[in-house]
Amino acid sequence: MAVLPKTMILNSSERRLVEQHVAVLSRFLDLEEPFEMREKMMSNDNAIGVMIAALLVKKGSRMDAAISEALSEDYLDALEDMPAWAVREAVRKWNRSESPQLDKKPHDFNWRPEPPTLRRLAQLERWGVEGRIVQLKRILNAVERVEYSDEHRLEMLTKLQGVMPGRQLSEAAE
Length: 174
Fold this sequence. Notes:
7 helices, elongated, mainly alpha
């Protein structure tokens, strides 16, 4: 739980803005949310299917129908719970040779990413949004830090000295 000074606790209008932002970000994680691709609105599954088809026809040897179908199934299995925008961003970064290394191994961008690799890259994109949502919710749920006056602190130290006899007040303060 976040603990913030009173001056940093959100007021009602700030809370409303942050809650709205969390709601907008949450839509990015909703697999039922339509996705615009090539100037068309598609379901999440259809958009991922289009991306997979595009991956299969480029950078590689020709495939017969059976191999293509099997590889499509592998990609669909790997990406079934990923939002299409995260897959698209992972593919875009792959195509630009900007994908982060996984397991400290460099990528060979001359080939399409394997299904597990593409999944992990898409997860990194999704985690960025999930992490932002968690941060914003922590701010929304933050409690005010209690600040005590020097007089109150001294009073409590005196009481503590009564509970812990034989210790100096300065020791109890440490």
